Amino acid sequence: MKFLPTLICLFLSASLSTVPIDHLENQVKTVSSADAPALSKKIRRTQDIWIRYQDYQEIVLHRHLADPETNPKTIRSDRQAIRACSRQLERLTDAQAILEKRFQAQYRDIKPGGQANMDRVIPGDHDLPSFGGIYRKQKPASDACLLEGDEDVGEYSLSWIPYIERGTISAGTWAYPSGGMHLGMDVAAPLMSRIVAGANGLILYADDPVPSNCGYLGNYCGWPYGGGNTICMLAAVNGKLYAVSLCHLSNQILVVPGQQVHQGDLLAYSGNSGNSTGPHTHIEVIELKTDAAQAAAYFRQGADFSFGCGWDTPAACSAIGCRVRPEEVF
Ligand SMILES: [Zn+2]
């Protein structure tokens, strides 16, 4: 099967040569509002191809690095190829940003915190409309949410392990450096990084309605608003029970509501879906005052990821729990 990677490479190079980035860059400046969605889709497809090509180049590099007989020149050229992919991906991200800026007026009426213009909400499981549209699950407490079952979180873990492998904190909780409320901690990590259970627990919600990893500010798709593809789980650690939310995931979610998970189990791969400006995972933590059954009973009424704490007051408590800074918990 040695020729298989070569075939993949040939296929990818053939696809790449059919996608002139210059052309896309010129189009974003002149495209009409009616044609913007199609152009956005084209840019995303091109990004996907380049990401796959970059992945392929990384595999090749690793193979060469593992072989002591590889010529150093080969390794240098592998690295150059990877850098070239990154540059193309940056250009595509810029093109998408220009497109977004040009048509920002289209979604100026959509405010964070759930004040969406309902005429423009697309019900059900349709694909995320490309540029300028919004998407929301009409019924958050549906099949994505644990509706009934055994609320067993299993044995309590002794301590946490990181949810995101190889991630770095890119924004802390409560306030952005530029001002504005931020209720979670952002962990930047490359697209498709592994996300594992930080502790033993139970999945309350897991949904991947958003096919694309091309999030942008103002993209209020997924549930809760702008979360993109999300998971909410109960986590049991050292005698305490927490609700942990993970947002902006890729559409590779590997758990279902009602599933008991063990610390370290693979939950999903990270992404950049929804109201997100780059590949990262947004984590929110509520320390619960109740047992698992009561927390699940509250949650299943409306898939409220805030557990009654709302969305605008930091450190707010409800009858069920209190928002806490993930940085202080993990
Ligand atoms: Zn965030």
From TrEMBL:
Keywords: Hydrolase
Record keyword Hydrolase present: yes
Gene3D superfamilies: Glucose Permease (Domain IIA) (2.70.70.10)
InterPro entries registered for this protein in UniProt: Cell_wall_metabolism_enzyme, Dup_hybrid_motif, M23ase_b-sheet_dom
Ranges where the M23ase beta-sheet core domain occurs: 181-287
One MF annotation (Gene Ontology) recorded for this entry: metalloendopeptidase activity
Protein name: Murein DD-endopeptidase MepM/ murein hydrolase activator NlpD
Species per Swiss-Prot/TrEMBL record: Catenisphaera adipataccumulans
Lineage: Bacteria, Bacillati, Bacillota, Erysipelotrichia, Erysipelotrichales
